[in-house]
Write a structure and sequence with these properties.
Layout (H helix, E strand, L loop, with lengths): L5 H15 L3 E5 L16 E6 L4 E7 L2 H8 L29 H6 L1
Antiparallel strand pairs: 1-2, 2-3
Length: 107
């Protein structure tokens, strides 16, 4: 069995940790095991950020809706121009094109 060199493993581990650094999560401030977020939507939540080795508390929010607003900020809406460029239709009938009158006669 071939083993991976330690240097390659260490590089991949470092890259994986760097990608995950800065991730946020919301943990409910309730007693007992943490269950699905929808179970107690009115419970306060702790917002935590991954530092690369541990979860660090960065804030507290009053409920699930506020936690979602922090975790998933609203993206700006991309405005489309009134008329956008459509690709030109190529030659030929194509699968969904109606045949012309001349093509009907040839059949």
């Amino acid at each position: 069995m071939d083993e991976e060199p330690l240097e390659d493993w260490a590089r991949r581990r470092k890259e994986r940790r760097a990608r995950s650094r800065g991730k946020l999560r919301a943990v409910p401030l309730t007693s007992g095991p943490h269950r699905g977020a929808h179970i107690e939507p009115t419970a306060p939540r702790v917002i935590q950020e991954w530092s690369g080795s541990e979860w660090v508390t960065v804030g507290v929010v009053p409920d699930l809706a506020a936690a979602k607003a922090v975790l998933y900020p609203q993206q700006p809406v991309e405005e489309r121009p009134a008329e956008w460029d459509r690709p030109a239709m190529g030659k030929g009938r194509g699968r969904h094109r109606r045949p012309s009158a001349a093509e009907d006669r040839d059949r």
